[in-house]
Amino acid sequence: MSKIGILGGTFNPIHNGHLLLAEQARCFYGLDQVLFIPSGCSYMKRQEEILPGEIRFQMVQLAIADNPYFCVSDMEIVREGNSYTCETITRLHAQYPEDELYYIVGADTLFQMEFWKNPEQIFTQCITAASVRQGREDSALMLQAKSLASRYRADIRFMPSLHVEISSTLVRDHLQKGTSVRYLVPERVRSFLEKSGYYRDGKESFR
Ligand SMILES: Nc1ncnc2c1ncn2[C@@H]1O[C@H](COP(=O)(O)OP(=O)(O)OP(=O)(O)O)[C@@H](O)[C@H]1O
Ligand SMILES: O=C(O)c1ccc[n+]([C@@H]2O[C@H](COP(=O)([O-])O)[C@@H](O)[C@H]2O)c1
User: Fold this and answer.
1) CATH class for domain 3-164?
2) Which end of the chain has less Cβ packing within 10 Å, N or C?
3) Which atom number of ligand 1 is nearest to the Cα of residue 104?
4) Nearest to 6 by CA among 51, 67, 71, 78
5) Among the atoms of ligand 2, which is closest to the Cα of residue 8?
């Protein structure tokens, strides 16, 4: 039996916060691999700010190239329509019936998941590995975890983690203003972004 971590995201673009999250989860839970899954259509986010899936996928490939435990899947990008995590997890569960799936999220996501499509399908087919900043295990979070456990039979396991204040929004802002993203994103991604001009040159670069 293997332990497979799953990190879904828009990755618009991928940054060092995502990589740190994945690596900490790998070490903390003893995962054999972490599968990065860039979304096809993040239907809850503003579409006009999101680069096409193939480009976000390519940046994830560049970002994880030096970590033998990390891999990337295009399953959401090639799927038509909105990206629903329940469909992704159901497919992975069927593909790896003997393995343990860990769906990796930042703890804040626990407050959103009940509004996603078919949360029960997600919670019952994998362990929810929630990264929580040390010292931030507050009572609201614990109550929410308890509530998800009783409503959806969720198996939520907390991972105390280091957190860096990097977001894709921050990276996009820096690129737009022409300020450095060195150390915010992996060097290969920085070089790709610099050459391509994505996020810098306005919406026409998204095509
Ligand atoms: N700095 C960070 N540290 C830990 N987890 C993070 C960090 N940034 C994002 N995540 C987590 O990574 C997953 C995917 O996030 P996503 O691709 O939406 O990135 P984002 O940086 O939050 O994007 P945006 O700024 O565009 O909203 C989510 O579970 C999110 O909680
Ligand atoms: O399944 C859903 O309904 C759903 C709704 C919102 C977000 N998600 C997933 O959650 C992950 C992080 O989403 P986001 O919007 O924070 O980039 C990404 O893999 C999304 O596809 C999933």
Assistant:
1) alpha beta
2) C
3) 29
4) 71
5) 19
